[in-house]
Amino acid sequence: MLSWKNLIGHASTVALLKKNIAEEKFPHAVIFSGEEGIGKRLAAQICAAALLCENPVDGEPCGSCESCRLVAAKSHPDFYVVEPEATKTVRNIKIGQIRELQAEVSLRPINSSRRVVILDGAELLNKAAANCLLKTIEEPPSRTIFILLTASRSSLLMTIRSRCRTIHFEKLSASQISDALTAQGVDPQESQRLSVIAGGSFGRALRLKETGGAQLRETALVTLEKILNGELSNEEIFSFGTQTADWSREKFADFLSHEQKILRDICFSKFLPPHNPDLAERLSKMKIPERKIFLMTEAGADFNRRLKSNASLRLLAEAYLMTLRKIFGS
To answer: What is the CATH number of the domain that holds 36?
Structure first.
């Protein structure tokens, strides 16, 4: 059942949302901004349940009325969700989806006095879809509330941002993630390890648990150690490329993220809290000139962008390691 009790952390944000709902001051268009996997979608679903609930109490859905049950079952006729569609190259929200949405919200609500629309992954609106959505937000249908979820607010059109209220969701603390994982039956030691490398995202912690996240970080660290020691051969690079061909693009993105965080820890450990405090002893032995760390970090960001194209994952992986090796050897 959808309840604010099920959302991890974000106490002050929850208090604000509940207050706005209870006082009938919820914005007609709002952006929930923040990292992937920190609870934005769950918060939006709870908001929808509370806004459509027949008997809400202080901004909390009752959980037992017909509307609450229908929202939880994702079958409420006045609750509409738009998500990116996958193509051969990228995932995005297309203009056809927004036109379908416009047709839907032009009708009167069926079960409730209002309608709630969630756009998940709003940063993936293509240009035509974004401009089409803008017209709807500029002249919103009466009694319709739009909640846009994004991990990259800056990627949204400025005109869309200016017409929406933004609520930012902060990263979760390692202790919050660890406690939540342990509550789900994960071994406490594994929970602590995953909470450190999850980067403030409970969703990422769950994915890392399923995909062997701790081992993936170890692979990233060992790979970097071999590069620094001049031990990474072409054969090993090609072998790694063959291995990554079976990975998802999300898993390779996690691998890149581990490399980036390790490099930042090496460079800034004396000035900033480390991303990998449990690796401090090993990282202290890795000596990389600051200039080369910056070049390696830029390379990681570049290859992360390339992941959004239809480039071969195997070729990307091989090219990435060859680039790091070249930078360090230069």
So the answer is: 3.40.50.300
Is residue 217 domain-shared with residue 304, that is, in the same domain?
Answer: yes
Q: Which of residues 134, 150, 168 is at a domain's end?
A: 168
Paired tokens of 272: 């900033």
> Taking the model in full, what pTM does it have?
0.77
Same domain, 254 and 146: no
Other Cβ atoms less than 10 A from the Cβ of 103: the count is 9
Domain carrying residue 248: 212-329
Q: Using one digit for the tens of pLDDT, what is the confidence trace for 249-303? A: 888 988 998 899 899 888 886 777 777 777 888 888 888 888 999 999 999 999 9
pLDDT in tens, 114-127: 999 999 999 999 99
Looking only at the bridges linking them, the beta strands covering 144-150 and 165-168 are unpaired
Query: Are 195 and 102 found together in one domain?
Result: no
* Beta carbons within 8 Å of 281's beta carbon, 6+ residues apart: none
User: Hey, is 86 helix, strand or coil?
Assistant: strand
Single out the residue of 83, 62, 82 nearest to residue 72, CA to CA. Answer: 62
In the chain, the number of structural domains is 3
Could you tell me if 4 and 14 are in contact, meaning their C-beta atoms sit under 8 angstroms apart? yes
Q: Can you list the positions of beta strands (E) in the chain? A: 29-33, 79-82, 85-86, 91-92, 115-120, 144-150, 165-168
